[in-house]
Amino acid sequence: MAKRANQSLKPTVRLAEPHDAEVIAATLRAAFAEFQQLYTPAAFRATTPGAKQIAERFAEGPTWIAELAGKAVGTVAAVPRSLELYIRSMAVLPAARGFGIGARLLETVEVFAADHQYRRLLLDTTPFLLAAIHLYESHGFRYTGEKPDLFGTPLATMAKDVTGQVTAL
């Protein structure tokens, strides 16, 4: 897929199903492969869970798959935490970056959060995922000051208030 070769390509996002677990796991592995050396081994394993662990996560909250020209190119999951919705496992394949897929995935989560009356979105990111941080900031996420640790890999927590947001894409 040539980056931006066909601007008429529009990403679609659909709710994932348990049979999509292997595709989601493969997407996460491929999306984060270029950053593997920046993670500790345990943190990379946690960031790129296998299909079995992905399948178990379906009980914890919704997962979505982004598709471009009928091919899975991105994913994101959400986990309810009281009045907050935690975003995890957001990834876009390197060859599919630049088509607005990350933005569509974030917008999908935001609509879900607003429709279900969550007040805030939360996510953790690593300081070396610069393009992702830029995307989050451009969508209104701000650093909370929390700096958790994922098996020795530093993280930063970002949040966005979604109270009163419009609920249509």
Describe the model.
This protein is of the alpha+beta class and 169 residues long. It has a single domain (12-161), classed as Gcn5-related N-acetyltransferase (GNAT) (Aminopeptidase, 3-Layer(aba) Sandwich), CATH 3.40.630. The protein has five helices and nine strands; from the N terminus they run E-H-H-H-E-E-E-H-E-H-E-E-E-E. The strands form two sheets. It has a seven-stranded mixed sheet with strand order 1-2-3-4-5-9-6. Strands 7-8 form a two-stranded antiparallel ribbon. Helix 4 links the parallel strand 4 and strand 5. Helix 1 packs across helix 3 (51-57). The longest helix is centred in the middle third of the chain and has 15 residues, at 101-115.
Question: Could you outline the blueprint of secondary structure elements for this entry?
Answer:
Layout (H helix, E strand, L loop, with lengths): L11 E4 L5 H12 L8 H7 L3 H7 L5 E6 L2 E11 L2 E9 L8 H15 L4 E6 L4 H9 L3 E2 L5 E2 L2 E2 L1 E6 L8
Parallel strand pairs: 4-5
Antiparallel strand pairs: 1-2, 2-3, 3-4, 5-9, 6-9, 7-8
Helix pairs in contact: 1-3
Please report the number of helical segments: 5
Let me know the number of strands.
9
CATH architecture label name: 3-Layer(aba) Sandwich
Low-confidence stretches: 1-7
Calculate Rg over CA atoms. Answer: 15 Å
Task: Categorize the overall geometry.
Answer: globular
Q: Please list the strands of the largest sheet in the order they lie side by side.
A: 1-2-3-4-5-9-6
Strand content: 25-35%
Kindly state the mean pLDDT as a whole number?
92
Please give the oligomerization state of what you see.
single chain
The percent range for helix content is: 25-40%
CATH superfamily label: Gcn5-related N-acetyltransferase (GNAT)
Cα distance spanning the termini: 26 Å
How do the helices and strands follow one another from N- to C-terminus?
EHHHEEEHEHEEEE
